[in-house]
């Protein structure tokens, strides 16, 4: 059985992901189309929230990925710092813009949902605020990647930032909880059955979640492939310059 | 390390500006607030602790990029990195010097400025205490941000973008101490949490900052 | 004491500049690095000093034994000559800075702020710092820039005295200092496409 680290070899990675990207892309399309149609047209309106509740099919998966994309970046950064696999650093870089987009989707759908429910587009609710803070962390991370020319230096510095940022993100989460007790409804998805949304909403939500997850994987793989190609191009240019000199 | 702190202090005193500019900025921002929100004490007093904390935080931010940039420009950072002191110690000393030249004077100046904004009495005391406990964390986080961006040509703006979100926990707890103090409530809990944040920063951030510096120096 | 590099590859920004470099310098000897600007002398010196990581190969002894002197000497204009020197001396665990002041004829300038020194005096101060590190191996990058003939001679004397005490110096320079030791033309080790991988 080959070790998982063999996939850290860029060539190997490229070969394997060539088939994985369309597979995950197809799965994402299937789940999202199916799940959203199911959720939007074939579930009843909530007795209290009416049709507005259906935004959870976008809101919850986006929020889920917004956090987990950061978590993935954290793991990838650790792998880069410890084992120095370039693919890992590039994957962290590739995930960031997707994570920030997901955070933005979660914030916007949250606002759209909050308007009819709470009567306001924005409230300084701890969970909303935490997402806003997460959004700022993503912005900083992406800007730092953009500001440094040397790819290895950029990977090192952004990894350290990701580590420290993660600690402070968790800290901010608790600080914000401390600062304002919120009006957000409890977690939509948890193992704890009483907290859960009703089954009739739950299953299409799971399908949508799977779809978002597959979309995320496909996009990260695709972007990582692009980053690897960009890096190879960079190397080719350097070689050319060396050959000329 | 004590040597390094003393050297930075001597430099700050002789170059002038070090103390003065941050304090002047703090004063000006505080003076601008009533022009923005109106002169009534009833309106100013409730927001005074938060406004003063934010003003102090921004004043702290002003001088952050000097922590490493000057030493980088004149080559001293290279020599420090090759000297027989750990880079972690260098960042800690640098942050300490930054705190002594900005955080400490800001904390002491905050109480009189609280009077300007009509803060009720015990609030001044707790504002000063919260700043004294919280600003070391600001300097350490700032040193980390400065270490991340020291190699960049226009790192200043980027550093603000990186550092300000990291300031959130300190700001939340610090301003809460001052607010509770001003409202006559017990500020013990947020003060303990603020102290915990600062101690955590002292314990962890020099390592992260030193790692970033090593990378930036390459 | 002996400075040895085996199969050393150094570079900047992920790009190797010099590849498969091997040399040894015995105690009491100097190694003069030659080569045009941008040929990798600075990168090699910074790698020896431990400021950059070598891409391959090894150097012994480690950077703890090496004092690095770069283009910029890290002296603070607002501090006096003596304050600057004693800061670096104490950082390296030494106290007495008079030998270093004397070696570069800085005794009479010791209470002058570094910003009021002439270019040549400032350079001398930067070089005097090497003496207070107490380290046996000096890695110097263009140390004689902005020194006139007299000061260059004084610098050569100081290096010679250092070598006479069993020290080692690796110096990137274009001028002939008349030191005992080899010359290394780094051009010969320029990284080729193969080294690039």
UniProtKB/TrEMBL annotation, chain A:
Instruction: Please give the chief subcellular localization of this protein.
Output: membrane
Protein's GO biological process = cytochrome complex assembly
Annotated GO CC locations:
plasma membrane
How is this protein situated with respect to the membrane? Multi-pass membrane protein
Asked if the Swiss-Prot or TrEMBL record annotates the protein with the keyword NAD, the reply is: no
Cite the entry's keywords alphabetically. Cell inner membrane, Cell membrane, Cytochrome c-type biogenesis, Membrane, Transmembrane, Transmembrane helix, Transport
State the InterPro entries in the record: Cyt_c_assembly, Cyt_c_biogenesis_CcmC, Cyt_c_biogenesis_CcsA/CcmC
Q: Which residues form the Cytochrome c assembly protein domain?
A: 21-184
Q: Which family does it belong to?
A: Belongs to the CcmC/CycZ/HelC family.
Known role? Required for the export of heme to the periplasm for the biogenesis of c-type cytochromes.
Q: What name appears for this protein in its UniProt entry?
A: Heme exporter protein C
Per the UniProt entry, what species is this protein from, by scientific name? Palleronia abyssalis
Q: Source organism lineage? A: Bacteria, Pseudomonadati, Pseudomonadota, Alphaproteobacteria, Rhodobacterales
Q: Which gene encodes it?
A: ccmC
From TrEMBL, chain B:
Give TM segment ranges. Answer: 12-35, 47-64, 99-119, 125-150, 157-178, 190-213
Q: Might you report a single GO cellular component term?
A: plasma membrane
Membrane topology summary: Multi-pass membrane protein
| Superkingdom of this protein's organism | Bacteria
**Where does the protein end up?**
Cell inner membrane
Q: Which Pfam families match?
A: CcmB
* GO biological process per UniProt: cytochrome c biosynthetic process; cytochrome complex assembly
* GO terms assigned for molecular function: heme transmembrane transporter activity
Q: Which controlled-vocabulary keywords does the entry list? A: Cell inner membrane, Cell membrane, Cytochrome c-type biogenesis, Membrane, Transmembrane, Transmembrane helix, Transport
Q: What does this protein do?
A: Required for the export of heme to the periplasm for the biogenesis of c-type cytochromes.
Q: Which PANTHER family match?
A: CYTOCHROME C BIOGENESIS B-RELATED, HEME EXPORTER PROTEIN B
Q: Which family does it belong to?
A: Belongs to the CcmB/CycW/HelB family.
Listed name of the protein: Heme exporter protein B
Species: Palleronia abyssalis
Q: Which gene encodes it?
A: ccmB
TrEMBL record, chain C:
- A Gene Ontology molecular function term of the record: ATP binding
Top class in the EC scheme: hydrolase
The alphabetized UniProt keywords are: ATP-binding, Cytochrome c-type biogenesis, Hydrolase, Membrane, Nucleotide-binding, Translocase, Transport
Keyword check for Protease? no
Record-linked PROSITE patterns = ABC_TRANSPORTER_1, ABC_TRANSPORTER_2
Q: Which residues form the ABC transporter domain?
A: 3-196
What's the superkingdom here? Bacteria
Q: Which Pfam families match?
A: ABC_tran
Q: Which GO terms describe its biological process?
A: cytochrome complex assembly
- Which SMART domains does its entry note? AAA
EC number(s): the record gives 3.6.3.41
The name of this protein is Cytochrome c biogenesis ATP-binding export protein CcmA
What gene is this protein translated from?
ccmA
